[in-house]
Amino acid sequence: IITHLRALSACLAFIQCGATSQDIMYLTLPLYHISASLLGVGGCIELGATCVLKKKFSASQFWNDCRKYNATMFLYIGELCRYLCNQPSKEGDRVHKVRIALGNGIRPAVWKEFLMRFGPIKIFEFYGSTEGNVGFFNYTNKIGAVGRAGIFSKFLHSFELLKYDISKEELMKDKHGRCKKARIGEPGLLVTLVTQEAPFSGYVGNNEASEKKLLRNVFVKGDVYFNTGDLLVMDRNGFLYFTDRVGDTFRWKGENVATVEVAEIIGMMDFIQEANVYGVNIKNCEGRIGMAAVVLKPDQAFDGERLYKHLVDFLPSYARPRFVRIMDAMQITSTFKHQKMHLVNEGFNPEIISEPLYFLHEPSCSYILLTREIYKNTLEVL
Ligand SMILES: *[C@@H]1O[C@H](CO)[C@@H](O)[C@H](O)[C@H]1NC(C)=O
Ligand SMILES: CC(=O)N[C@H]1CO[C@H](CO)[C@@H](O)[C@@H]1O
Fold this sequence. Notes:
The protein is α+β, with helices and mostly antiparallel strands and about 375 residues long.
């Protein structure tokens, strides 16, 4: 349910970024999504600005279109900026008038690369969801942060990061059945207090689904919080960082593995274009074993030895993916997010997967090809 108040406040997002009626927005996102419809089209109406609508996002046409229409701002979501960075560099990459980019989902490494490639564009990364009753804005110059919990925003929306047990996929409670707050530097489940000023309007005609998003009696009897389903970390200075979706983070050897973090580190390899990390179930084993589906850069080969060395340098052993699956293309949702479900279900069985599969082989300090014969004995090599 999008109330008028919600719709109107969403239309104000670009004004908060300093946009004016002189700006020209280049819009490539699907219009049924709140981002394009309310922040984008609604934002242009609110501003009296020009909106250039593209039927479908195209990474190769993006900057040419921006130049052609004199675009000064755009909306991004999910992996969109990564796809722009993945395009071959061109001399004129910085020749454009774009000055503002607003969206959510840009990863720190992509953020830095994007600014280096395309020039000093102000990136406004925000955190929020269509139905959620809270939003954070990166109003500081902190790369990677989704926002900051200043006294002011804490006063406006009361939120908490709650201690969460990844293996049981449930909140940790004290002996009175109340929730505990996560410590500084420790990922916690983001929940936001539902009040008259920050209401949760729920889903149309589906009370059950609406109720599922709410947590009651969190700290005291009768309080109600909206469950965002996201794990975030707060640092000493109050900056908030997105860690992972609940359900994506998995446990292996008693340790938590945040898939976003691992994917980012794999993505640092020069031969890898993008990585999608997830945990798969394995017979007779507790927790889930780490796996990465990767797309290689054009004309690049997979180098198991270098990847192994890189991961040993950057990740503790429990977080290093045991299996790597090479994909021709990553499947994404209509909002440019990686799909994981089908990958999780297919696991690492070479009988099912026709693409090359590699596994982490400690004795040879490398990732080596997973053949059908080796697969039959995988449980021993783990
Ligand atoms: C873009 O700006 C240039 C220079 O200001 C102008 O000549 C041109 O007509 C503009 N293009 C469009 C599509 O408005
Ligand atoms: C509003 C604002 O200051 N946004 C900033 C968010 O972080 C990036 C990266 O440092 C800055 O470029 C933006 O200016």
